[in-house]
């Protein structure tokens, strides 16, 4: 009787274990199905996300292509490099049409978006007809007709142009809404899949424990019957199968994480495209204002050539001021983009700041007290003109923050930094140049955006918002960093950290663009010097020749390097003035060719932009940026002739 009771209890435990395993298997199967359903829903949401990304990116691309085409047409009607600008306009406009057709194929399954894209295609055709009229008028030489028509089309707030941009914005807005919804769904289903995975993990642990229990039961039932052992084997196989399914689910989650990283990268690219659009708009606005001053001043001066000289000079001075501002903006943009070449020299920051004090006193006004605290003795290797410009910009910003009255302190000091102590700077020795004011200070929000291009807290017309961006680009380009320490109502300290250098000699100098150099730098009488000018632009070539003749030189002009080499076969020259970038043989290549035969020849490079790869070819020669005044040209020519005389004297 007792034996039967024990067997009955054992059978009960065995039945309970079998029932528990069955229930666990059913629960596991159900949860696996739920995970599979969640993954399918998540994949569908990810597909909608990718489609929304593609549509949004293509819309931004169409908008940017249209903007580039209209910008090229603007240069075309202004008679700026007609052939290149016209080709760019036509090519970009056709490319925009191709992109619109791609957009039509991309949204063909969405009736609403498809209708909007159809409207975009219609507006694109209408806008193209309008712009074609302006291009035709400009190419046929109808006076200012092309320019006037383009100006009317550009400034109009109604018509196909504004409607086209508005419709593109509407398409992008709709896709962003779909993107947000899809991202929310993706996050929801991913979270649910994560929870189910956690549950599966715990369930796997419980099943493992159950398998151990069943193993014990199987050992105890080894003498009972073969059927019990087979059921235990079956249950172990089921556990192994479920474990494999769990591993596959984990692998799917890893794949999902990689897809999300790709999606985030695409989103960052879209944000970059939006930032480029904002930057382009700001540049166009500022340059249009400056061109309006230049064109208007020259036109008014031309109309009053027979009138009082004072009125003519007034309008010419206004035009010169506009051109100067445009050149300054170009240099700031190149510096911010890290595309303007730096011409570094070995500089003692303390000496540079001391020499800058008089200029700051005159520039900032009598109500601003400028204090200089020069303690550093380490040299730095930077472009001194860029550094002076950066310090001047910081001082002017400080004056504006103090509303024209207060104290500005410029301090230099030697400092040793640890790894990552300031920004991303590596450990080492640095020279700190700090400009401090006693102004209103910055809020945390303003500090975070201080280095953004075209961000400014000044009133409209009081600043471009490129000052701190230029300083940031200069510091990074020089291997340093910029830091801001500010408190509202206390003041602001902007510090430049530039690396210490052991360089002894600077190899390239560049005279100022809008002003003469110091007499000690460019002294010497070189009247009657024979100069060969190599410039591919006929208008720049003509203006430069006239300026050199006014300066009592004997210039001869060439349009390219081949003509220059031929000119040297017939006569000798004291100096060659060459553009850097020219069709065929570049300026540096021409100079290398001439220097092999005429090592004593003076060289002056003239450039509006120097790209990467040309810097080594320019070392050891004078360089002048476009645009420049006659005074700046005089200083640069004198410096180049002086530099050419030094080796001769040494010999």
From TrEMBL:
<feature type="transmembrane region" description="Helical">
    <location>
        <begin position="15"/>
        <end position="36"/>
    </location>
</feature>
<protein>
    <recommendedName>
        <fullName>histidine kinase</fullName>
        <ecNumber>2.7.13.3</ecNumber>
    </recommendedName>
</protein>
<feature type="modified residue" description="4-aspartylphosphate">
    <location>
        <position position="579"/>
    </location>
</feature>
<feature type="coiled-coil region">
    <location>
        <begin position="246"/>
        <end position="273"/>
    </location>
</feature>
<keyword id="KW-0472">Membrane</keyword>
<keyword id="KW-0067">ATP-binding</keyword>
<keyword id="KW-0808">Transferase</keyword>
<dbReference type="InterPro" id="IPR036890">
    <property type="entry name" value="HATPase_C_sf"/>
</dbReference>
<keyword id="KW-0812">Transmembrane</keyword>
<keyword id="KW-0418">Kinase</keyword>
<feature type="domain" description="Histidine kinase">
    <location>
        <begin position="282"/>
        <end position="502"/>
    </location>
</feature>
<dbReference type="Pfam" id="PF02518">
    <property type="entry name" value="HATPase_c"/>
</dbReference>
<dbReference type="InterPro" id="IPR003661">
    <property type="entry name" value="HisK_dim/P_dom"/>
</dbReference>
<feature type="transmembrane region" description="Helical">
    <location>
        <begin position="199"/>
        <end position="222"/>
    </location>
</feature>
<keyword id="KW-0902">Two-component regulatory system</keyword>
<dbReference type="InterPro" id="IPR011006">
    <property type="entry name" value="CheY-like_superfamily"/>
</dbReference>
<dbReference type="InterPro" id="IPR036097">
    <property type="entry name" value="HisK_dim/P_sf"/>
</dbReference>
<feature type="domain" description="Response regulatory">
    <location>
        <begin position="530"/>
        <end position="641"/>
    </location>
</feature>
<keyword id="KW-0597">Phosphoprotein</keyword>
<dbReference type="Pfam" id="PF00072">
    <property type="entry name" value="Response_reg"/>
</dbReference>
<dbReference type="InterPro" id="IPR003594">
    <property type="entry name" value="HATPase_dom"/>
</dbReference>
<dbReference type="InterPro" id="IPR004358">
    <property type="entry name" value="Sig_transdc_His_kin-like_C"/>
</dbReference>
<dbReference type="InterPro" id="IPR001789">
    <property type="entry name" value="Sig_transdc_resp-reg_receiver"/>
</dbReference>
<keyword id="KW-0175">Coiled coil</keyword>
<keyword id="KW-0547">Nucleotide-binding</keyword>
<dbReference type="InterPro" id="IPR005467">
    <property type="entry name" value="His_kinase_dom"/>
</dbReference>
<keyword id="KW-1133">Transmembrane helix</keyword>
